[in-house]
């Protein structure tokens, strides 16, 4: 697999997208450092594999099988791997055994970048009109983010060209629970989703762990997806969201990364920012005009909506970003 060198065509690509001010800024940047190729086919296969296991709802066989597969994949790519096992209460009184999966490259490096997604799926299809109480496949909501990060891990592990920083990939568990969309009564004593990030942010796998910044990827594989600057990302990490969006435009993925603000989404990155004190952004498909897409928390969140082009746009942007450090 050949490495990409975005040197000669860089200015032309940058000039084709964005406002005049953004074009001027991008055109004056130093030539980009080389970075490896992100394989959309490989990322797609990783999403398919997860869906083949079935819905990855905690306390199920599919969840356990997926966990073992994920651990073996990261280990095979030469990452140092561990799990953070813990128990958490659910909104309906269950006690779930959950596992955050943590994979690290170059663990001795002091400058670190944190990449994250969630690997569980929702146990109900509460936005659907049928089979509401059955779990969803979560090809995009869960599967796509994991697929992108697995491909990044594969690339780092298999290529001679390595990033100059340490990389920590955390796959949070228990993100996609929470009360049904139209629940008549709600327990507001705590937040019942993002269980894995809430736990990790208050109980880091390494005492005093920190990272230069973090990138969360969630809902990053659907056909026609566009990514806007999410509200909490702007609040906590405006410099990082600018860096990533500029990078996307610099490598020709500006059609996917829109210079437009969206509402705030209470996702895993909020707890990483608030409690772990690591500036983290969320790359998430959420439109300022339409909100979540029509498949969100429905059975239509399956492989039919997954698009290699979207996976590549996000994966290539994140890969480019970490190789520029």
UniProtKB/TrEMBL annotation:
Q: Which Pfam families match?
A: Peptidase_M28 (PF04389)
Which ranges carry the Peptidase M28 domain? Answer: 100-319
Q: Sorted alphabetically, which keywords does the UniProt record give?
A: Acyltransferase, Transferase
Alphabetized GO MF terms = glutaminyl-peptide cyclotransferase activity; zinc ion binding
Please give the PANTHER family that the UniProt record associates with this protein.
GLUTAMINYL-PEPTIDE CYCLOTRANSFERASE (PTHR12283), GLUTAMINYL-PEPTIDE CYCLOTRANSFERASE-RELATED (PTHR12283:SF6)
- Report what the protein is called: M28 family peptidase
List the lineage, top down.
Bacteria, Pseudomonadati, Bacteroidota, Cytophagia, Cytophagales
